[in-house]
Design brief:
The strands form two sheets. This protein has a three-stranded antiparallel beta sheet with strand order 4-1-5, with helices on one face. A two-stranded antiparallel ribbon has the order 2-3. With 73 residues, the chain is an alpha+beta fold. The mean pLDDT is 85. It is built from one helix and five strands; from the N terminus they run E-E-E-E-H-E. It has a domain of 39 residues.
C-alpha cells in the first residue's frame, strides 16, 4: 500500500522525511495511520491545458459575439 508521510519516520534503519511516498505492507501502513504519521497516497490526476486564445494555447482564437447597434430615433 502506498502512503504519504506527514512526519519524518525511521523505517528499517532508514530515515524518511515528511512528504515522501513509501510502499508498505497494509499492517505497517495502518500503524502509521493510527499514529498520525502517514495518510493514504492517491496519485494526482494530470492537469490538462484548458486555456483558450492565449499565447500558450493550441486552440484557435474564439470569435467574439457581435450585436446589433441600436438605432437612435
Amino acid at each position: 500500500m502506498k502512503v504519504k508521510l506527514t512526519r519524518g519516520i525511521l523505517h528499517e534503519k532508514e530515515h524518511y522525511d515528511a512528504g515522501q511516498v513509501l510502499e508498505l505492507s497494509n499492517i505497517e501502513a495502518q500503524k502509521l495511520f493510527g499514529m498520525g504519521k502517514a495518510v493514504p497516497y492517491a496519485e494526482e490526476p494530470v492537469i490538462e491545458n484548458r486555456a483558450v486564445a492565449l499565447e500558450s494555447s493550441e486552440e484557435p482564437v474564439l470569435q467574439k459575439r457581435t450585436y446589433k447597434k441600436k438605432v437612435a430615433e
